Design the sequence.
């Protein structure tokens, strides 16, 4: 008994000294994130690689649930700031930048030549000519289609960029005759409808106008905005009825079952389509068709980013990690696991036909890359706008009321 | 000499301290103090804080900007606010159906049959499960394509109606879901009340030839007044703070047509797209004012009843 006690004492003393030694050796970087399981494993791999190259730094990853994170970040940035935090590019980071919660990391960009290697995301990471974080992944939006449904309706399956908007609308009539929803969506959570609006606006008025609209410089009652809704009205009758009661996954099920032919979605939906039993044989991808012929093609690709809070304890090591996260090597690791596109131009695109098509689509989008309506527009405007889109898709006759309401919101929100 | 005598005298009759003289008046307050302190810190002061915040423009992070009554002026011109207010009125009125419905079920279940306890607990079941579960069950019940109600309507009329996607029906659909557990709650209140109904009065009424509705209205119901009072109070409060079902079933949609004030307040102040603390607080103050009408009514009635005793 006595011996045991003595042994335990010695053991715990030994443990104490070793942990103390470790704590002295390693500089801690605390990282708050909101990864799903697969990307979490990949990020842990990236962290392990970084720690192997920098043995004096230890990164402590604290993973949150997605939805909870959006609320939690507001608390922990002020109350208990980590050294690194996940967030999103574009206007979504603006509140934290303007309230001084995110640190300016332009020096990381400059020292590592990121303006060159992460060039496609430079605009969406820049506010006031400074960069406020490092992007590590993005993914394309577009139209995913069930080729079996095309066959059932006797419509020729279009290629990635074969058909125009007129042809798309004409196809819708054929689908209706075959009892198939030409376009499906599930707007219970509102945002899927915004994808349709974004593309219609990008194709009708172009990237610059879309940015002007989302940053509040154009009235919603403008004729050019009405033109977008005129185009939308052409497909509105062919959109899945009751979409307001459907989650986006419910609508994905309609596509999988062949009850719907097309779905304007982000590439993350491919996993859901494949789980539902679709294969590369019958799942197709096309760019959103061209509407106005004279404007450069712009695309939508939401970008995920990592930032350093202003109140970080260890910003120097955090910057070292950001520099590593920007490398092609790190971006390869994480994007292979996420099934998304790396931003570093020297990184390799995962071997997947949809990602290859997406990479091709985004890298040739000379018009520009939009983030997504709820990231380009301020949160409040995004919510009002997406509600308006949903209402329009249910009751297009309410358009005037919707636009007046959005215009009233615009004059208040952007004052 | 006289000096030496003084301490002895005071030892004999200790000074009547303030404590002793006021003991009977102070003691209740001392016992109440912990509760009152909690109530002041966690209930009363937040009410005034909300009123104070409602006069600012504040995103919860940055600087507060004093804007006076501008939030209220904006509320007066906000369609979404009127939609929420109207839905709250609908909730209040239709939720009251749970009082007569609960009474009917209580009377129906107030029998002595083998296994009655089992039936009672089964009828009480909807109140035991979480509102979130109730919301989910009803969303599936209403769901387009595979929902039972949707298929029933489709079978009867040829075209299905997606209740939760239609701004005309959505609030009624959610209230129906809310009534299910609320009726069970009211039922249990009445069941306990029915236990205390005096049997001699029932027998006397029966001798006088009272039956059916007359018996219920003139003999049973007056004895159930305390239960009715509580049932109305919990139903009014339940209707005004309806939030879970709206959040689970529709998230306020389609396009905001099923919002109620409490949900709108949450959306504006605390949701992903909101963070307008001032505006949210202004909505909360309006909701508080509406609740205050009922609460004062209840307090006034209770006070009057106490005095009559």
Sequence:
């Amino acid at each position: 008994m006595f011996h045991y006690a003595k042994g335990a004492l010695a053991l715990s003393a030994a443990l104490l000294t070793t942990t103390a030694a470790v704590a002295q050796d390693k500089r801690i970087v605390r990282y708050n994130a909101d990864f799903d399981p697969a990307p979490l494993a990949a990020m842990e791999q990236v962290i392990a690689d970084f720690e192997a190259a920098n043995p004096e730094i230890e990164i402590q990853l604290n993973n949150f649930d997605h939805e909870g994170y959006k609320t939690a970040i507001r608390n922990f940035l002020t109350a208990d700031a980590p050294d690194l935090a996940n967030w999103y590019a574009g206007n979504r980071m603006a509140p934290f930048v303007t309230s001084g919660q995110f640190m300016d990391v332009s020096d990381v960009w400059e020292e590592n030549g990121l303006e060159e290697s992460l060039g496609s995301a430079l605009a969406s990471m820049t506010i006031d000519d400074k960069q406020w974080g490092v992007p590590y992944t993005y993914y394309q939006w577009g139209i995913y289609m069930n080729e079996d449904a095309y066959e059932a309706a006797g419509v020729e399956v279009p290629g990635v960029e074969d058909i125009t908007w007129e042809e798309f609308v004409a196809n819708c009539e054929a689908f209706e005759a075959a009892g198939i929803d030409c376009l499906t969506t599930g707007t219970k959570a509102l945002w899927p409808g915004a994808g349709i609006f974004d593309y219609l606006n990008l194709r009708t008025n172009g990237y610059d106008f879309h940015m002007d609209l989302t940053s509040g410089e154009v009235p919603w009652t403008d004729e050019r905005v009405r033109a977008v809704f005129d185009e939308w009205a052409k497909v509105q009758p062919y959109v899945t009825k009751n979409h307001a009661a459907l989650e986006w996954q419910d609508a994905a099920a309609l596509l999988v079952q062949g009850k719907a032919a097309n779905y304007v979605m982000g590439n993350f939906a491919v996993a859901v389509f494949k789980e539902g039993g679709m294969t590369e044989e019958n799942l197709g991808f096309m760019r959103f068709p061209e509407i106005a012929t004279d404007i450069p093609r712009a695309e939508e690709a939401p970008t995920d980013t990592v930032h350093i809070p202003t109140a970080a304890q260890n910003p120097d090591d955090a910057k070292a990690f950001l520099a590593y996260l920007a490398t092609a090597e790190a971006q390869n690791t994480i994007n292979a696991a996420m099934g998304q596109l790396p931003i570093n131009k020297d990184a390799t695109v995962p071997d997947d036909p949809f990602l290859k098509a997406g990479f091709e689509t985004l890298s040739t989008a000379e018009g520009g890359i939009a983030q997504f309506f709820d990231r380009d527009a301020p949160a409040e405007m995004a919510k009002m706008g997406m509600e308006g889109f949903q209402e329009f898709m249910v009751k297009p006759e309410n358009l005037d009321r919707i636009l007046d309401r959005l215009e009233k919101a615009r004059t208040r929100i952007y004052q | 000499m006289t000096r030496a005598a003084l301490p002895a005298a005071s030892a004999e009759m200790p000074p009547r301290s303030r404590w002793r003289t006021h003991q009977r008046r102070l003691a209740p307050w001392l016992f109440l103090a912990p509760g009152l302190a909690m109530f002041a810190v966690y209930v009363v002061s937040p009410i005034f804080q909300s009123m104070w915040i409602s006069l600012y423009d504040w995103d919860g992070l940055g600087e507060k900007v004093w804007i006076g009554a501008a939030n209220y002026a904006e509320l007066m011109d906000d369609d979404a606010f009127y939609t929420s207010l109207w839905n709250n009125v609908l909730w209040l009125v239709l939720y009251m159906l749970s009082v007569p419905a609960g009474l009917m079920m209580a009377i129906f279940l107030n029998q002595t049959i083998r296994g009655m306890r089992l039936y009672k607990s089964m009828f009480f079941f909807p109140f035991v499960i979480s509102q979130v579960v109730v919301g989910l069950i009803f969303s599936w019940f209403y769901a387009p394509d595979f929902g039972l109600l949707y298929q029933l309507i489709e079978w009867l009329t040829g075209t299905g109606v997606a209740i939760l996607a239609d701004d005309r029906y959505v609030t009624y659909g959610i209230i129906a879901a809310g009534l299910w557990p609320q009726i069970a709650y009211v039922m249990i209140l009445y069941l306990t009340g029915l236990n205390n109904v005096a049997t001699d009065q029932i027998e006397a009424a029966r001798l006088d030839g009272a039956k059916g509705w007359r018996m219920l209205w003139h003999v049973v119901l007056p004895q159930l007044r305390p239960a009715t009072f509580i049932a109305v109070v919990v139903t009014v409060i339940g209707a005004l703070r309806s939030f879970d079902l709206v959040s689970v079933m529709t998230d306020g949609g389609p396009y905001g047509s099923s919002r109620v004030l409490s949900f709108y307040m949450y959306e504006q102040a605390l949701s992903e797209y909101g963070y307008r603390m001032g505006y949210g607080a202004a909505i909360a103050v309006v909701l508080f004012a509406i609740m205050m009408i009922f609460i004062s009514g209840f307090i006034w009635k209770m006070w009057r009843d106490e005095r009559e005793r």
Summary: The longest helix of chain B spans residues 18-53. Chain B has a mean pLDDT of 88.
